[in-house]
Specification:
The complex is a heterodimer of chains A (about 350) and B (about 130). With about 350 residues, chain A is mainly α. In chain A, about 70% of the residues lie in helices and about 0% in strands. Chain A is built from 15 helices and no strands. The longest helix of chain A has about 40 residues, at about 25-60. Chain A is globular. The N and C termini of chain B lie far apart (about 60 Å). In chain B, about 60% of the residues lie in helices and about 0% in strands. With about 130 residues, chain B is mainly α. Chain B has helices at about 10-35, 65-90, 90-120. Chain B is flat and about 70 Å long. Classes of the chains: A mainly alpha (about 350), B mainly alpha (about 130).
Amino acid sequence: MYEITFATITNWIDTFLGQYMPEWLVTTVECLLIGVGLLLVYALLALFYIYFERKVCAAFQCRLGPNRVGPWGLLQSFADMFKMLIKELITLKHIDRFLFALAPYLVIIASMLSFACLPWANGLQIIDFNIGIFFLIAVSSIGVLGILLAGWSSNNKFTLIGALRSGAQMVSYELSIGLSVLTMVAFAGTMSITGIVEEQKDLWFIFSGHVPAIIAFIIYIIAGTAETNRGPFDLPEAESELTAGYHTEYSGIHFGFFYLAEYLNLFIVSGVATLLFFGGWMPLHIPGWEGFNAVMDYIPSVVWFIGKAIALSFIIIWFKWTFPRLRIDQLLKLEWKYLLPINLFNLVLMVIIIVFNLHF
Amino acid sequence: MVLLDIFGIQNSALLAVVAALTGFGLVALALWLAGLISPRSFNPQKGEAYECGIPTRGESMSQFKVGYYLYAILFLMFDVETVFLFPWAVRMRELGADGIISIAVFFGILVLGLVYAWRKGALEWK
């Protein structure tokens, strides 16, 4: 059986450091290492996602996309980030300075905390509470606060409208996310992220939970798209109406944080969908097909997780080029009159399936 | 096979603090870097709100549509009810029939709330 446990590397570092330092210092150094690692993965993934989205969008529009900076334009997003760093940070006159400065911190911290909850491989997961998925939903909703503060503190009519729309949208669709996660938690019987992934060892939840799991997945992916303010739900930053929505007044790297968090949220939404419905880092197993399962085990779990998450992100980006933008009344109607009742019904269906043992 | 073992730190609360500090560090570091290398120029026009090119009329931090509040209140109601459903969802198999009956009553009230809001026209965007 081919297994790389991340713990072997960390245990080695732990014993190595333990030879030279007292215990409290070892823990501090390790926390520092975790922080630096998290920062690097976060930043690199955001840069990759910017590149990825631009390439996918270009493909949908029969364009080439970025292709000048570096091979296949791979360095384009690095260049973009550097450009943002060297742009002037404009100090505005009428803003609420404290809240204006606080907003990007909240947005980034919310996405960083939920990012740290994702299971990348066996043991390669930073925050693992026994209420993991609940914690993830809780911290990811801090982001709304950052967006509302950004819009309010800018003292600009466009940002205020953008922030309120964004707040109404994210808050509404969070309900759908919460309920579809609840449906899957009922099926898994645990809230721990490791536990949920372990439950899917033999068969992913989307297969073993069949009808209710598929409905929950469809609702989750729609709500997730709305939650990240993307695709057909990007009316908080409807360019033709509101200049750039809640971050109109932010310049340079200040704007970059919102940009970064938006792309990372895309990854987090697809990552959570992966761990809830597509088995997290578990390889594709089909009961009875021993040879096939053995071959699938040879693909490292990190590759499985990232591959599934990117495939789901591709679908979310695809939405953007398929559906026209919704109006605010249509958006709220979709959530409150369609998704929410369907979700409640789906929960009942899931309970029936579990009680009568109709799942695989 | 050790499942969760990042340096043997089992304290997830500590790691959550580390992650939050990392987020804080990312913003602080990038702002510091940008402050070092970005140019500065002063012009009174730059401090104005980015709206239409003409000076803003009236106060921007003012009243806004009450409809947003209505959705916020509805959200609060349903979200708190979802939070109450979570512990039951985890223990559903152990609690058995009793658990399902008692949660069905709770769930019925939740649905009644939605029906009431719907009939009252609270879900309409006016």
